[in-house]
Amino acid sequence: MLKGLLGKKVGMTQIFDESGAAIPVTLIEAGPCYVTQVRTQETDGYLAVQLGFEEIKPKRVTGGELGHLKRNSLPPLRFLREFREKDPGVQEGDKITLEQVFAPGEMVDVTGVSKGKGFQGGVKRYHFRGGSKTHGQSDRQRAPGSRGSGTTPGRVYKGSRGPGHMGSDRVTVQNLKVVFVDAERNLLGLRGAVPGAKGGLVMIKGARKQ
Question: Taking a C-beta distance cutoff of 8 angstroms, is the pair 5, 106 a contact?
Fold first, then answer.
């Protein structure tokens, strides 16, 4: 069976176990999702399942996507994403709900887009130590320092760490434990933090490194 769902990050809270210890929990509105396409080795050259999530008005979907969804009599959907799966066990047009895929105690990987931080310095972006805080220093406390190598090569190598755009990257957090599943409200509770801002799209898959 396909071990994957699309969802929206709702936010964080905490719950308490039997001993009274606080457990940090991220809430995700996971599913229901529709199987919009099943890719096969014969037709596409690889095996995958395309899922659609979040019903919207038809005018908010491009004509091509609308026709793609109408093949299987599916409603207009905001998000379409693929999950690589060798033996999905689903067919195009199927509706997948949270309780069909995940159960409490399982481990999952979550992929999302991290929060954008804009242009940031080297101390915040790469945790540089910065300059000395004494001995006459007036403006070097959060400076990155030298990145070159003297006469040879006489320049800064490409790819060197330094100030620049931070965040808005695709990030995967592995081995998060499913704390609870609320099938009525399509809520999934995961122990720990999940990448992205509130309301951001996340892909939830069965853990690869259990």
Answer: no
Identity at 10, one-letter amino acid code: V
Tokens of residue 208, six digits: 């690869």
| Residues above pLDDT 90, as percent of the chain | 88
Q: CA triplet 117, 208, 91: central angle to 5 degrees?
A: 100
Cis peptide before 144 (omega within 30 of 0): no
pTM above 0.85, yes or no: yes
Give the number of other Cβ atoms within 10 Å of residue 72's Cβ. 15
Structural tokens at position 127: 């945790």
Res. 16: pLDDT tops 90: yes
- Flag whether pLDDT at 68 surpasses 80: yes
- Domain covering 4-116+170-206 assigned CATH 2.40.30.10 in the classification: yes
Tokens 């509706």 found at: 95
Q: Above 90 in pLDDT, residue 79?
A: yes
Per-domain residue ranges for the chain? 4-116+170-206, 117-144+159-166
pLDDT band at 149 (very low <50, low <70, confident <90, very high): confident
Residue appearing with tokens 């105690």: 105
